[in-house]
Amino acid sequence: MKYCNRFIWSDPPIKYANEMDELIIKKWNEVVSPEDTVYHLGDFAFRSRNTNSCFHRLNGTKILILGNHDGKDVLKLPWAKIYGSVVGKNEDRIKEYSSIALTIEGQYINLSHFAPRTWDASHRNAWALFGHSHGGLPEDASLSFDIGWDAWGQPIDFATIRRKMEWKIKNGAPIIKEWIPENVRAFNQQFIRNDALRTA
């Protein structure tokens, strides 16, 4: 599951793609049970020889919202559902990106690969969750944030998302001295651990 010709963050650093694959699978399966439904917000894998075998080792019913790096190998996987499509080849290729909206535990949520500036029902406290930015897009006070691997270091569940949104409602935009993935992950870890939440 090599992604974007670089390796994901880990401590200690990862040297080989197969080590990264094993780390992702381990962390995924620690959080996701076979009965869970996972919305993957795109860029599942890029230029990997192991995409199919890794996919089948990941727990959960997996739904893909197409990302800009998802190619034919990713689209051929047995996703429960794919939102978005690719038509044509080379310079005639057209990618149709999708966002979806759903309600979980009474909360209306928009999911997309790219970060939106506004979204369906944003003026009525709907949330927006996205990927793509690798933890590098500074957050504002809106009810929106990056749920990608680089920003969290693992998949996150709805309870964790709710804790962070409640924090944002109370505190506004996180103030992180340097907005790089390592610092964003460190900040987000408190929501995973459910610490007594700090102000940033």
TL;DR?
The chain is an alpha/beta fold. It has helices at residues 17-31, 51-57, 72-75, 149-152, 158-171, 181-193, and strands at 37-40, 61-65, 81-83, 85-87, 94-96, 99-104, 107-112, 127-130, 144-146.
Would you write up a description of this structure?
- This protein is of the alpha/beta class.
- The protein has 2 domains: 1-97, no CATH class; 99-200, no CATH class.
- The chain has 6 helices and 9 strands.
- The protein has helices spanning 17-31, 51-57, 72-75, 149-152, 158-171, 181-193, and strands at 37-40, 61-65, 81-83, 85-87, 94-96, 99-104, 107-112, 127-130, 144-146.
- A 4-stranded mixed beta sheet has the order 6-7-8-9, with no helix packed on it. Strands 1-2-3 form a 3-stranded parallel beta sheet, with no helix packed on it. A two-stranded antiparallel ribbon has the order 4-5.
- Helix 2 (51-57) links the parallel strand 1 (37-40) and strand 2.
- The longest helix is centred in the first third of the chain and has 15 residues, at 17-31.
- The radius of gyration is 17 Å and the shape is globular.
- The chain starts with 16 loop residues before the first helix and ends in a 7-residue tail after the last helix.
The count of β-strands is 9
Structural class: alpha/beta
Low-confidence stretches: 1-8
Q: What proportion of the residues form beta strands (DSSP E)?
A: 15-25%
Q: Give the helices and strands as they follow along the chain.
A: HEHEHEEEEEEEHHH
Write down the domain tally: 2
Given the C-alpha coordinates, what overall shape results?
globular
